[in-house]
């Protein structure tokens, strides 16, 4: 698959509270940065896709409210999606593959600071049976972490190593929200949030926006720095937590398999140079190692013990610092894709990994990683 490329990316800084910026301000900033990065103007954009969530925005049809800020109000065809931005980028790509459009501008935004995260994520669940018992994003993740550790013998120390690694990486990322080095002891002794999750096992509440410009073959070849889409796949698992074994990432396995087949990757640990994965919680990164085929099922803890995913390891994971250093919901996966593009181009600055030809980006949707989207991009 060499006829679609990502030709421009732009993101705001990730902050705990972007008090001085409206939703439109953030979207405008990310859009302008992506256009500048691509060497394009809005005249070069054929259609626009906005991504948000009405609950987090506090208004209905929130995706339509930022149309002017991202240029869609200038007579462009505009479509709107809810959920993680990696899925919106997939939609933007398929619009080009339809033959109707030559370019897609995809934007995503959120202000977690103006929302009640636990109230909103409680509303994810079934209103009759699961919502009344108080399930939310934190305690459902705690259930998953406990199940994962119990089934495969993964330790809290191994999960904590993810937090230590990603916080260290974030020190070199100018967009990261939390730039603070933490030790293994800091993580293990931090405040208990929902047993066994501790403070530094959890990603923070964040505000941010991101924009990505995707182009078809002819338009991409004229771009300044096209990064080609080699493969992409997505897959969803069952909605009810009780219908899944929360210790396993079967939907990610299937999504990754589709992406690898398209990219002709047979050994991801050997053939991928860097990965940006959705580490909303420390243990998730270990589970995603397994779902992405970086190691056998149940061996995520052993992989981080060996230092394979450190900046100087065989396959650096989350050199940007990941979501543990700033987690704008909805935007998080799209930032992973933007970071993967920067790594392939050699434009990631102080957190650049050496000799990157192929990069992986990953986004999720739904409680406990119900749905996954995997992108492989390269030269």
Q: What labels would you give this structure?
A:
alpha/beta; two-stranded antiparallel sheet; 379 residues; nine-stranded mixed beta sheet; 11 strands
Please provide a written account of the structure.
The protein has 379 residues and is of the alpha/beta class. Helices cover 34% and strands 19% of the residues. The protein is built from 13 helices and 11 strands. A 9-stranded mixed sheet has the order 3-2-4-7-1-8-11-10-9. It has a two-stranded antiparallel ribbon with strand order 5-6. Helix 6 crosses helix 11. It starts with a strand and ends with a strand. The relative contact order is 0.19. The model has no long low-confidence stretch (mean pLDDT 96).
What would the average pLDDT be, to the nearest integer? 96
Oligomer: single chain
| Strand arrangement in the largest pleated sheet | 3-2-4-7-1-8-11-10-9
Uncertain segments are none
Rg on CA atoms, Å: 19 Å
Percentage of residues in strands: 15-25%
């Amino acid at each position: 698959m060499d006829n679609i490329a990502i030709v421009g990316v732009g993101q705001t800084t990730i902050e705990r509270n972007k008090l001085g910026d409206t939703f439109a301000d953030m979207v405008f900033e990310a859009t302008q940065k992506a256009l500048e990065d691509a060497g394009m103007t809005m005249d070069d954009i054929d259609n626009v896709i906005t991504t948000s969530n009405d609950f987090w925005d506090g208004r209905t049809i929130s995706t339509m409210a930022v149309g002017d800020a991202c240029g869609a109000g200038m007579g462009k065809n505009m479509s709107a999606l809810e959920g993680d931005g990696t899925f919106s980028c997939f939609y933007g790509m398929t619009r080009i593959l339809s033959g109707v459009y030559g370019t897609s501008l995809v934007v995503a935004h959120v202000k977690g600071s103006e929302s009640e995260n636990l109230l909103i994520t409680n509303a994810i669940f079934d209103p009759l049976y699961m919502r009344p018992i108080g399930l939310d994003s934190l305690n459902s993740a705690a259930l998953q972490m406990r199940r994962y550790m119990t089934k495969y013998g993964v330790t809290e120390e191994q999960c904590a190593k993810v937090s230590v690694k990603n916080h260290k990486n974030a020190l070199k990322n100018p967009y990261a929200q939390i730039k603070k080095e933490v030790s293994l002891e800091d993580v293990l002794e931090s405040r208990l949030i929902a047993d066994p999750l501790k403070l530094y096992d959890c990603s923070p509440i964040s505000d941010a926006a991101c924009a990505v410009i995707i182009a078809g073959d002819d338009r991409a070849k004229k771009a300044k720095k096209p990064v080609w889409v080699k493969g992409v796949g997505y897959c969803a698992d069952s909605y009810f937590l009780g219908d899944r074994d929360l210790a396993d990432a079967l939907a990610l396995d299937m999504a990754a398999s589709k992406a690898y087949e398209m990219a002709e990757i047979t050994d991801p640990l050997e053939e991928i140079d860097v990965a940006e994965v959705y580490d909303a919680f420390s243990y998730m990164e270990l589970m995603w190692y397994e779902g992405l085929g970086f190691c056998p099922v149940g061996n995520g803890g052993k992989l981080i013990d060996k230092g394979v995913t450190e900046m100087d390891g065989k396959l650096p994971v989350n050199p940007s610092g990941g979501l543990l250093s700033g987690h704008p919901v909805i935007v998080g996966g799209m930032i992973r894709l933007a970071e993967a593009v920067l790594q392939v181009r050699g434009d990631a600055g102080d957190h650049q990994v050496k000799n990157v030809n192929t990069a992986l980006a990953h986004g999720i949707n739904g409680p406990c990683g119900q749905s996954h989207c995997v992108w492989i991009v390269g030269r």
